[in-house]
Amino acid sequence: MSSPALPTFGFSTTAEEVSDALAGELAGKNVLVTGTSVGGLGYETARAIAKHAGLVVITGHNAERLQLSVEAIRKAVPGAKVQAQVLDLSSLASVRKAAEEINKDVTPLHVIVHNAADTSSVYAVTVDGHERQMAVAHFSPFLLTKLIFPKLLASASDSWVPRVVLVSSKASSMGPGIDLSLPSLNNPAPDSPQVKNLFLRYHEAKSANVLFALELAKRGVGKIRAYSLHPGTIYTNGLKKDAAIPAMQSMGVLKEDGQPNPEFTTWKTIEQGAATTVVAAFDPRLNDKSGAYLVDCVEANDQRTDICSDSANAEKLWKLTEEVLGEEFVL
């Protein structure tokens, strides 16, 4: 008997609609989602997945806020199996500690969703000496994936290849591209364009997400599938921060009153914004498209910049990241 045809997902599809449509794919799956504060994309992703999945592990750097997310998901989805894991992506020591705790559990992980990002719009250097936006969006997710990679491999079966999802942004195409030189990647000079214009650094960090997915897909062929995506333009907490508002107003993203500018783009709700992440994590129609970039729930490699489509750039970023972290990631 053939399986029923899956619905077409698009701009207006919500994460819960995707979860319901792919309930059979989600059943029994264990998923880790980073950056899951209530009201954000990661939270909505975790909530929608928890409706049908076996276990959802959510992470955040603040234990109290993380527990609020756990309670909110359990209230929204009675019976959901949700587990909290404290993880501060601005600290490599915290990443290592979290990975150690995750690895103690014998439960395999079927999917990792790297959703967290630094949206403070304030230049900062981490305790490890790395510029914070790149640390949170790329260095730490790279290290976490490496450290818990055996947990992913343990979920593989004849019917399932583990997935890693990188939540990038259209911002990856809104700039000159990522500077793949070691000093700039790690910590740009104080007088560099990336420090003077922190949106440019966000652009680089989101470009790194796309390149990481591309190289992970290539190196992990047969073992793992990887995808990056643009969730849409959404009025999240990151756009409401005082430090971010002036830059967003200057670009026309926000109006003078700080509210979303409908003339800039067609905005998505948070529920719509999380849909593409759930698609990337579970849609079987992507099985032969590892490395793809998704927009509005479908493959959109044509919207990926030339820089972010270049396999040589992806390989270079991988090697530079290994150099920054001081260790190799061999699949």
Automatic annotation (TrEMBL):
Entry keywords, A to Z: Oxidoreductase
InterPro entries per UniProt: NAD(P)-bd_dom_sf, SDR_fam
Gene3D superfamilies: NAD(P)-binding Rossmann-like Domain
Domain of life: Eukaryota
One term of GO molecular function: oxidoreductase activity
PANTHER family referenced in this protein's UniProt entry, alphabetically: RETINOL DEHYDROGENASE (PTHR24320), RETINOL DEHYDROGENASE 11 (PTHR24320:SF283)
Protein family according to the UniProt entry: Belongs to the short-chain dehydrogenases/reductases (SDR) family.
Protein name: Short-chain dehydrogenase/reductase family protein
The organism of origin for this protein: Mycena chlorophos (Agaric fungus)
